[in-house]
Structure formats: structure tokens, C-alpha cells
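Example 9 (inverse folding). The structure is encoded as follows.
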């Protein structure tokens, strides 16, 4: 099967669907799909974060147990604490390695403390036997108190078991409340779809919740119900469905040989911030086990991963809150001065609020300093601001040239959380080039909404800011946005933030 490349998806335009809605109009779903999409969904936690929390708890338990036993039995009775400190560090690292090799951290294992108790005790015991062997070979056994070592072993085993019971209780609570669900859609009906669904439902503790089946076929190969799950529409309907309700995963049941059909569907779905997998349950082509990801024992081939997921989400959230708060504090004198200048220059509010596209095409209210005369305010961005635009106030020209008008978006970052410091710039919902809406110019335009929009971005520091009056300008912006999404890292965010002030000074002629 060919390699899936983001640029190929952008360039491979598909014929317009004669039944597609007008730009800005939501696609109509079937009554059943509408009802399912309208059901409130609780926010979920990533299993990767839960597994990380379990590793952290085990680390703290081992360190705390070793330290407590040392304080009770050894403190003040030895010339050097270094052997004990090194032993605690070594046993902590060994615990994580042994428990990982014994598969004690996958979310399924965390749901069943009783089933994993024997493995916990076995791993902890083997680790201490290994430590004793090392002490013997290095002839340093006389430097470690036997009482401390035995007490550490017994206390650590008990504490690790109690910790696992606590984790199990927490995981079961999260499972019962739906906080660990992976909401899933199946693409493709027929026998292959039914076989996959039954195999997935036979697995325990996967957290998978199948929301429905989608299939472009309308013949006998695609019945209205597959293994008890209703067919909710076509792949086009799936895109709209995923924007109405949260979906975490899409699984294709098409055979690998149906490459052309699979590519056609992926061109519609890759714009969504979800994981996309290809079922290998009935595939005749057998790859090495490490080539697959698994739900229980059901193998899947990874096609697309949601960008900025799991721990990356937490890193970016902390980065936005900490750096955004510091920036808001540091820039508050400037913002107060600008607010006074706007109020003195023309009548009307200081801040301007405009609806723009946010994450997964959700609409967000973005704050800016008002730069147009109040009576000429354009909330829908029906007409872009151009050079020497008479709608722009005197203060407005300055703050737009310097991008100071964007500073109130720090409020979006710090308090509302619907913007990030760095990301694709949020575009107004009805924004367009001279003749066409952005989504009509760039095939795959909405793929830039797979992450939160940002105050500044990769496109902006490369000169693509200001007016987008030509198709090339919006095409280049989207290309840079997608590069950022595919190559995100915290260091890249730092680089973009550091370079933004200089790029604003150099590119002032592009901003009106």
C-alpha cells in the first residue's frame, strides 16, 4: 500500500458533491445520526495519561518506602547514606523496567489488581534477588543493613499492592462514568464489518464504544444494521458527525487491495482530529506483530494519528497557561495604554469580538482591540481590510501594523482556553480571497483545525500574514499550518514565539 502524505491529500482534489451543502452550512444527517450526535458526551482521559500516572505512583511508593524504612532503622547509625540512596534509585528504576516487561501498566491490567497481584509480587521479588546478587558480586553487602533491606522488601510489596488497589478503584470509577471511553466509528459494512465488530466486542477492557457504521455503498453489501449497530450514513456524513460529537477513532474494514477506494475516503477524513486505523482482522497479508496496534487481540494498522495527543496535550496546555500568564502580566501596561488610546481616538468599545474557526471547526469568540470605526465594524469579515482602508482608525493603523491588536487574544489563551499561543491562525468563518471562500480554494483546508488555533504560527513567521487576496496566499498559509501540525514540539513553539517579534518588524508592509 502506498504511503499517505499530507501534501498528497491537499493536492488531490475531489469532484464537488452535487448534494453537498453550501459553504458555511452544516450537512444534514439522518434522524438517527442527529439524535446520537446530540447526546451529551463527557470529556475523557487518555489511557496513556492513566498509565503514566500509575508509573509515577509506583515510583513515589518505592522511593517513599525506602526512605521511610531508612529513617526508622538506619538514620544516625551509619557513616554514609550513599549506598542506601543508590540502592533506592536502582530499585526504583528496576521496578519500572520489571513492571513494564510484565505488562503491568496497560489500562486493562490497571483494571484488575487481583489478577496482577501475583505479577507485582513476582517482579518485586525478582528485583530484590537481582539486587542481592549484585551486592554479592561487588562485595558490598556489609554496607547495607539486612533489616533495612528485608523491611524495604516487605513494606514495598505491601505498599505497591495497596497502590495498585487504589489505581484499580480510580480506573473502575472512570470507566463507569465514561471517562475512559474511546468513541469509535466503523467505515465499511458487510461481512468484514460484522466480523470486526464482533471481534472488538469480544475483547474485555478496551474501553471501545462503537457509535455506528458508515459506508458509501448503498447495495446489499451494506445493510442498514451491522452486528446490531446502525448504519448512520456515508463517509461525508461521518465528517459532519465527528464535528457534532466527539469521536476518538475511525476503523476501516476495507481490504488493503481496495487502495483507490480507501484513498478516496481518507481524503475526506484526514481533516478530522482523530486516529484512523485499518482493520487487519481478516487480512491475508500477515506482518510482524510490532507493525500493528491492538485492541485486545484485534490487530489494526495505523494510518493517521491525532496530532498533539496524550502527554503532548498536557505539555502544550501547561506551556500556554504559564507563558500566556507571564506574557499577559508583562504586556498589561501596553494593553492598558492601547485601550486608553482607542477610547480617545473614536467612539465605540475597546475590544472587538469575532467568531472564528477553532479546534475541529468549532466556532470561538476571538478578542482583538477594535481597529475599525465602530459603525463600520465587520463581524463576519465579509470584506478584508486593505491598504489605506478608510474603515481603519488612526490608532487602528498602528496597532494593526504592529499586530498589537492581537494581544487581547491572550485572554482566550489564559482564561477561555480556546486558543493556544502558537498554532494555525484562526480565520473568520466567512473569510475568503477576492472571489472564493478559503475552503473552496484549498482542498483539505479544514485539516488546519485538527489542533487549537494560535495567536502566532509557523506561517506568520515565514511572511504569510496580512491580506489573503489571492489563492496562492491562502494555499501557502495552509501548507505552513499543516507542516506545523505534523512537526509540532514544545521546542518548535518556543522557536516560533522567539522569532515572532522580529518577523513582525520585518513584515510590517503586509499588515494593513
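The amino acid assigned to each position is listed next.
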Amino acid at each position: 500500500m502506498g504511503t499517505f502524505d499530507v501534501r498528497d491529500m491537499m493536492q488531490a482534489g475531489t469532484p464537488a458533491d452535487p448534494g453537498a451543502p453550501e459553504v458555511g452550512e452544516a450537512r444534514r444527517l439522518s434522524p438517527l445520526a442527529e439524535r446520537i450526535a446530540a447526546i451529551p458526551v463527557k470529556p475523557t482521559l487518555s489511557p496513556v495519561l492513566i498509565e503514566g500516572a500509575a508509573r509515577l505512583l509506583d515510583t513515589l511508593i518505592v522511593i517513599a518506602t525506602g526512605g521511610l524504612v531508612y529513617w526508622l532503622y538506619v538514620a544516625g547509625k551509619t557513616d554514609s547514606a550513599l549506598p542506601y540512596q543508590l540502592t533506592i534509585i536502582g530499585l526504583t528504576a528496576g521496578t519500572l523496567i520489571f513492571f513494564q516487561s510484565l505488562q503491568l501498566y496497560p489500562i486493562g491490567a490497571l483494571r484488575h489488581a487481583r489478577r496482577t497481584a501475583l505479577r507485582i509480587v513476582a517482579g518485586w521479588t525478582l528485583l530484590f534477588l537481582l539486587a542481592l546478587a549484585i551486592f554479592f558480586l561487588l562485595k558490598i553487602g556489609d554496607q547495607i543493613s539486612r533489616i533495612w533491606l528485608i523491611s524495604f522488601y516487605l513494606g514495598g510489596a505491601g505498599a505497591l499492592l495497596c497502590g495498585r488497589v487504589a489505581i484499580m478503584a480510580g480506573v473502575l470509577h472512570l470507566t463507569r462514568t465514561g471517562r475512559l471511553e474511546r468513541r469509535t466509528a466503523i467505515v465499511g459494512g458487510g461481512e468484514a464489518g460484522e466480523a470486526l465488530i464482533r471481534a472488538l466486542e469480544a475483547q474485555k477492557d478496551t474501553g471501545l464504544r462503537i457509535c455506528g457504521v458508515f459506508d458509501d455503498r448503498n447495495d446489499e453489501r451494506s445493510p442498514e444494521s451491522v452486528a446490531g449497530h446502525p448504519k448512520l450514513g456515508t463517509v461525508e456524513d461521518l465528517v459532519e458527525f465527528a464535528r457534532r460529537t466527539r469521536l476518538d477513532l475511525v476503523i476501516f474494514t476495507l481490504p488493503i487491495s481496495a487502495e483507490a477506494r480507501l484513498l478516496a475516503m481518507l481524503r475526506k477524513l484526514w481533516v478530522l482530529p482523530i486516529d484512523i486505523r485499518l482493520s487487519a482482522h481478516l487480512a491475508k497479508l500477515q506482518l510482524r506483530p510490532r507493525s500493528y496496534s491492538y485492541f485486545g487481540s484485534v490487530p489494526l494498522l495505523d494510518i493517521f494519528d491525532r496530532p498533539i495527543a496524550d502527554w503532548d496535550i498536557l505539555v502544550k496546555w501547561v506551556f500556554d497557561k504559564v507563558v500566556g500568564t507571564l506574557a499577559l502580566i508583562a504586556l498589561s501596561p501596553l494593553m492598558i495604554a492601547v485601550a486608553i488610546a482607542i477610547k480617545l481616538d473614536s467612539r465605540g468599545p475597546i475590544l472587538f469580538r469575532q467568531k472564528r474557526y477553532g479546534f475541529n471547526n468549532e466556532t470561538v469568540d476571538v478578542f482583538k482591540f477594535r481597529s475599525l470605526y465602530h459603525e463600520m465594524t465587520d463581524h463576519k469579515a465579509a470584506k478584508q481590510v486593505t491598504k489605506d482602508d478608510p474603515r481603519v482608525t488612526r490608532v487602528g493603523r498602528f496597532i494593526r501594523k504592529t499586530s498589537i491588536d492581537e494581544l487581547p487574544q491572550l485572554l482566550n489563551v489564559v482564561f477561555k482556553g480556546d486558543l493556544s499561543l502558537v498554532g494555525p491562525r484562526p480565520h473568520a468563518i466567512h473569510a475568503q480571497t477576492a472571489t472564493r471562500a478559503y475552503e473552496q480554494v484549498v482542498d483539505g483546508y479544514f485539516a488546519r483545525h485538527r489542533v487549537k488555533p494560535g495567536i502566532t504560527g509557523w506561517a506568520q513567521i515565514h511572511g504569510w500574514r496580512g491580506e489573503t487576496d489571492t489563492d496562492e496566499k491562502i494555499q501557502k498559509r495552509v501548507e505552513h499550518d499543516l507542516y506545523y501540525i505534523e512537526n509540532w514540539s514544545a521546542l518548535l513553539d518556543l522557536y516560533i514565539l522567539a522569532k515572532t517579534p522580529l518577523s513582525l518588524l520585518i513584515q510590517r508592509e503586509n499588515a494593513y
